[in-house]
Q: What sequence folds into this?
């Protein structure tokens, strides 16, 4: 068992790091403060292929493995959680299901521009009444001639309004399952600009404030029949499988936030002096840092293992859930400790750890709360 | 190569637009010291077109002899004809030492000529002296005397190396501008002037100059300034440089800046102090809002007095400053300007 | 068109300078990078490739580890990489280095050779012009703009207070300033592709028309008499006062030193 990264991965990390330091970090504070979507950064990333890292070259992507993609989200999130989630939602939640379930025509039409970054992607599953309980969907799609007609709404959608292509889930009927009638869910590809597809209010969030989070509203929104993604009625499976991949992206984001907070704090405790010594000279600081670094390392191993499982295994739900559960909790713990070690300055917006702590919280919530991850893991254990 | 045949300290007397560059006089000043140690003469090599009249100036600054290579092909600097001129002088006159300014011309001409005459070249020297190689006698190795020892910074100013060229001649060095001292010119001094033309036949290496575009700068060269008020990224904005300009004006100084300021597009490159900018040694250097990255320090640490103002008490600039003030430049600088103005007015 | 770009792997002196406890430079702890001027030269070549179509070959001389910068260059878009490495080439000064690289380039077809102006470890700016001398082709140093016109290059050649617009027939050598351009990033896919490609490795035996007497430490006319890490001037005084007191402090010091 070899824990060293290949030279290719090392170089890819160096690339992501350089880009993050030069292009993303200088904007992180402003993006948070103004809550403005970093469009220019997204365009720069598009040019470099960062929006199609795990997509095969024949579909406009970079043809890299999930680990390379995870490292990209990790390095971006070290300096800016917002930028990390933009890439994660686009890649894991929009490119990936089209790549996995899309027809050749759908791949040609949607995946290529998405992977090239000419278009941005989003994913709409959550509804006001259907969060953790994804079966509680209300949005409906009815086939009318050659078109599906969508009615309903989705909420808390990352990249909402900024994205051009949306993977949307809706009820397409009722089926009998083990003697009970259950909702039949299907997935669709919906383009921005389709009549009847509008945006509600923009959410004001605690963290990742530059990411654009919107309500999506469908009112007699008619999309072509061929925009059904995968088979009719297989939407729930598609959503769950997509979220397995998405969790690796969010786990990478959480990991990056924790690493960023740790690095910032190490720098700070070397400079900050109290009682005539740097605070890094105090044993409390040293032990705190040791714990933080150990947990960050453990999180990294879980995240990388999950990313590698995605490359080699058909099913990687447990690996992804463990990585996300652990990395998110580490992110929250490490960023909180980072603020504590910064003292009063840690509570001030001028210092990055303040933002990192706010950004970290969401990683315990979205794409499956920590509780959902525990359900996934324990479900597999007790199967 | 019979090393004994090579005699005399030679200086490439750079001229641009038929005006001798300051570096030529600086090199003559140093060459005179070296020639004294070696008990030999100083020769200036003047290359250009219609430049004979400039020889006297070189004599006033210390040249005993001037070799003039005057040809229409040499009107504006081009690598090949100039390299041919200087290499031919070296082959004909066999100098022991050949000094060239580390200018945009010299750093092109020097390597081309050194490769042509097959000798070593030490770049961007800051100290030149005559001594032994090896510095201390080593058993089994002959210790050579009267060698040119060339000292230069490397690794972005982090290290210094002293280099010799013991088995080849001439010993060639390019010398950083602003480092060597020119002598007080001796009015009416005359040198032996000798004309030499190796013949110039254009070939593919004679490039064609299509246009010459001169940069318009009204500012004083920061290398000549006695007082420099230098600003870094901490100044905050291009507009805020106004408070530095006011301070400079009161003291009769000039504004300069750090690399960060040039990179941000706040000030032009010719005002940049540091490893990739200019080396300055004014009487007083104010470092205002400059953190003091090593590349910057390499270009200003020879200043007589360094005054630093920075809000970050741990900024490395304080490690080289004679007088460091931790504080807000926006509050201190305008008050300092006012106070100095009052002091100067009172002294009159 | 065939373009050869010479690049060098250097310690990152910019910001990342590390010192040992005794104050000497800790070279082992410093990251290595592609020399910035060389990277600008590579970018210039890649832009010519984008604009006119060209095959870009990168050449480096160094330890086997220098392969990394070739991979990086290929991940940016260079077509081929050649590593010149051999024990006998070690310890070379600029003369021996330029002799070696010229010996390697003699094996290649080229219209244009681009080098960086200077490397940030040595800062000599000599190797480019010396290669051109060994190959007997024109050199245009300090290029701030490069264009191709037929069989010629038109270059803006920078000086302190002006620039020349210079035209030279190819083949010729150009040394690039880092101000020439903003080098592109690699792409993730480009990195993986670069590692799939072959890198040509040449040793002493592969160098064309060079004399052993001109190679490596032995073939270097310049010899290091002494090398040391720079001893910095010690810190002077440092005070933290309110603005008015700060002003009086500075004024007093300038008076004592007879500046005013």
A:
């Amino acid at each position: 068992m070899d824990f060293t990264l290949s030279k290719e991965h090392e170089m890819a990390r160096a690339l992501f790091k350089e880009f993050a330091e030069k292009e993303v970090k200088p904007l992180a504070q402003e993006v948070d403060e103004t809550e403005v979507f970093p469009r220019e950064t997204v365009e720069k990333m598009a040019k470099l292929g960062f929006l199609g890292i795990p997509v095969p070259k024949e579909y406009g992507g970079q043809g890299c493995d999930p680990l390379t993609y995870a490292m990209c989200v990790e390095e971006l999130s070290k300096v800016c959680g917002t930028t990390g989630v933009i890439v994660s939602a686009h890649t894991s939640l929009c490119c990936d299901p089209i790549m996995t379930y899309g027809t050749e025509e759908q791949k040609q039409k949607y995946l290529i521009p998405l992977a090239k970054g000419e278009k941005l992607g989003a994913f709409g599953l959550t509804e006001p009444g259907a969060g953790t309980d994804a079966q509680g969907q209300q949005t409906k799609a009815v086939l009318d001639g050659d078109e599906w007609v969508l009615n309903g709404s989705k909420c808390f959608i990352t990249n909402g309004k900024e994205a051009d292509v949306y993977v949307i889930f809706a009820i397409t009927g009722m089926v009998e399952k083990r003697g009970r009638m259950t909702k039949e869910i299907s997935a669709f590809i919906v383009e921005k600009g389709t009549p009847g597809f509008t945006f509600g209010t923009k959410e004001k969030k605690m963290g990742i404030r530059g990411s654009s989070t919107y309500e999506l509203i469908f009112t007699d929104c008619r999309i072509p029949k061929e925009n059904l993604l995968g088979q009719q009625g297989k939407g729930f499976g598609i959503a769950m499988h997509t979220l397995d991949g998405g969790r690796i992206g969010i786990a990478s984001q959480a990991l990056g936030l924790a690493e960023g907070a740790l690095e910032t704090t190490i720098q700070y405790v070397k400079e900050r002096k109290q009682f005539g010594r740097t605070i890094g000279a105090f044993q409390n600081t040293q032990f705190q840092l040791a714990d933080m670094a150990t947990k960050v390392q453990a999180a990294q191993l879980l995240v990388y293992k999950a990313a590698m499982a995605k490359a080699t295994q058909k099913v990687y739900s447990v690996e992804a859930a463990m990585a996300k559960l652990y990395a998110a909790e580490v992110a929250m713990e490490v960023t909180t400790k980072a603020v504590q070690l910064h003292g009063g300055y840690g509570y001030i917006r001028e210092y990055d750890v303040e933002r990192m702590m706010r950004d970290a919280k969401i990683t315990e919530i979205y794409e499956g709360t920590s509780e959902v991850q525990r359900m996934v893991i324990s479900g597999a254990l007790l199967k | 190569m019979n090393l004994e045949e090579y005699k005399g300290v030679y200086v490439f007397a750079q001229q641009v637009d038929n005006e001798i560059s300051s570096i030529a006089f600086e090199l003559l000043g140093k060459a005179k010291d070296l020639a004294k140690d070696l008990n030999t003469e100083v020769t200036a090599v003047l290359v250009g077109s219609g430049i004979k009249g400039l020889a006297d100036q070189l004599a006033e600054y210390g040249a005993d002899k001037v070799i003039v290579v005057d040809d229409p092909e040499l009107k504006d600097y081009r690598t090949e004809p100039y390299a041919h001129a200087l290499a031919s002088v070296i082959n004909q006159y066999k100098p022991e030492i050949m000094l060239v300014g580390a200018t945009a011309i010299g750093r092109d001409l020097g390597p081309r000529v050194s490769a042509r005459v097959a000798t070593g070249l030490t770049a961007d020297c800051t100290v030149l002296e005559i001594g032994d190689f090896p510095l201390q006698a080593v058993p089994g190795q002959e210790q050579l005397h009267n060698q040119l020892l060339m000292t230069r910074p490397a690794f972005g100013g982090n290290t210094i190396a002293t280099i010799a060229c013991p088995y080849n001649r001439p010993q060639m060095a390019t010398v950083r501008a602003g480092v060597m001292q020119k002598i007080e010119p001796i009015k009416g001094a005359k040198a032996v002037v000798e004309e030499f033309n190796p013949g110039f036949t254009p070939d593919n290496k004679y490039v064609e100059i299509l246009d010459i575009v001169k940069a318009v700068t009204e500012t004083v060269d920061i290398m000549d300034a006695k007082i420099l008020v230098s600003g870094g990224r901490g100044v905050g904005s291009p507009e805020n440089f106004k408070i530095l300009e006011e301070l400079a004006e009161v003291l009769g100084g000039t504004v300069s800046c750090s690399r960060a300021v040039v990179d941000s597009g706040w000030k032009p490159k010719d005002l940049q102090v540091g490893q990739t900018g200019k080396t300055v040694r004014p009487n007083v250097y104010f470092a205002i809002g400059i953190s003091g990255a090593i590349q910057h320090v390499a270009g200003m640490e020879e200043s007589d007095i360094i005054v630093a103002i920075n809000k970050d008490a741990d900024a490395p600039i304080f490690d080289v400053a004679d007088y460091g003030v931790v504080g807000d430049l926006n509050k201190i600088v305008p008050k300092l300007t006012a106070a100095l103005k009052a002091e100067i007015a009172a002294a009159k | 068109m065939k373009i050869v770009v010479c690049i060098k792997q250097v310690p990152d002196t910019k910001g990342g300078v590390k010192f040992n406890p005794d104050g000497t430079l800790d070279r082992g702890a410093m990251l290595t990078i592609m020399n910035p001027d060389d990277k600008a030269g590579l970018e210039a070549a890649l832009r010519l490739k984008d604009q006119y179509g060209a095959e870009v070959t990168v050449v480096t001389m160094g330890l086997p580890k220098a392969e990394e910068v070739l991979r990086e260059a290929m991940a940016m878009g260079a077509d081929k990489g050649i590593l010149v490495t051999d024990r006998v080439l070690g310890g070379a000064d600029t003369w021996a280095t330029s002799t070696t690289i010229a010996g390697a380039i003699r094996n290649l077809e080229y219209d244009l050779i681009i080098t960086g102006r200077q490397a940030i470890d040595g800062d000599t700016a000599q190797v480019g012009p010396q290669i051109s001398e060994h190959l007997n082709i024109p050199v245009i140093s300090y290029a701030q703009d490069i264009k191709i016109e037929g069989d010629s290059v038109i270059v803006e050649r920078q000086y302190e207070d002006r620039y020349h617009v210079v035209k030279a027939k190819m083949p010729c050598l150009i040394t690039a300033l880092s101000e020439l351009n903003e080098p592109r990033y690699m792409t993730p896919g480009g990195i993986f592709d670069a590692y799939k490609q072959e890198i040509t490795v040449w040793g002493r035996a592969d160098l064309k028309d060079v004399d052993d007497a001109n190679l490596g430490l032995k073939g270097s006319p310049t010899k290091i008499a002494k090398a040391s890490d720079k001893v910095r001037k010690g810190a002077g005084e440092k005070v933290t006062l309110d603005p008015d007191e700060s002003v009086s402090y500075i004024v007093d010091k300038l008076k004592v030193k007879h500046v005013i």
Chain B touches chain C through 95 residues (CB under 8 Å). The first helix of chain B runs from residue 22 to 38. The mean pLDDT of chain B is 92. The helical segments of chain B are 22-38, 55-60, 79-93, 106-116, 242-251, 259-263, 294-297, 329-347.
